[in-house]
Here is the input.
Amino acid sequence: MSKRKVLRGLVLAMGYACVAIGLFHVLGGNSAIPGASSAGPTVDSLGRFFGAIFAGYGLAWLWAARQSPIPATAVRWLAAVFLLGALGRVLSLAVHGWPHWFQVVLGIVEFVLSPLFFWLANAEEEAPEAVRPRNA
Here is the structure.
């Protein structure tokens, strides 16, 4: 499979996943956060707000996926935000200790996918014009 196809597939998957996860948090509030179902209204409000932001982040990935070629600069910026989130998890771990196991898994995914996106970012811009996908 070519780097172009991998990039396009991952960018689309990232976009749809982030939109779905964000909306799940907007609708679910505290119950969408592992280990926080009994947290109060402040955490619920914060979680729903960040859920909306995360859904918007997903829409930015989907916007990038609809461009031809997928803009490497957009991929790098979006991947940098993802990596910053992973670094935030490490900071939280250092300050407060280990979170719910699912948050650890998410952090690992964030640390693996971020460099992969940086590596693939130029895949479509570097492809010859004849093999670039067209906008749908």
User: Anything to note?
Assistant: Residues 3-131 form one domain. The CA atoms of residues 21 and 55 lie 7 Å apart. The chain has one domain: 3-131.
